[in-house]
Amino acid sequence: MNLQETQLQIYQLRQQMTLTLDNPKSVKLQVKNINLIQKQLRAIKKEINLAIKEINQQATQTTPDSLISVGLDLFGKRKLAGQVRQSTRRAIQSEKISLRQPYMDVKDYIDQVILEGDKLKLKAEQYLAFGK
Known about the structure:
Elements: H1 3-16, H2 24-61, H3 67-74, H4 78-130
Helix pairs in contact: 1-2, 1-4, 2-4, 3-4
């Protein structure tokens, strides 16, 4: 998954999500379009969630005890071995967070766009309810 292409796709979908309160038939059609765009955004969000899960799995699979830690354990230096393992875990956790962050930002952006769509649909509902 290329994040730049995904961000561009989200931006383009956001640009297509418009609402013009001109006549009830047109507004209903625009609401359908907004719903379709929101479905597409949710599909993109699912892809992003899969990418995040993949990052998490890769991080957990690359956490075997280091040879240094095992060696220290064998020679009775358990406290030092524990510290080595802890620093390794922290480094892996930090790397996982830094790899995930761009995906989390895109996910937040998708949520914002979906929320904008909901606001537009609410305006359309109010127009259709009171405009008649």
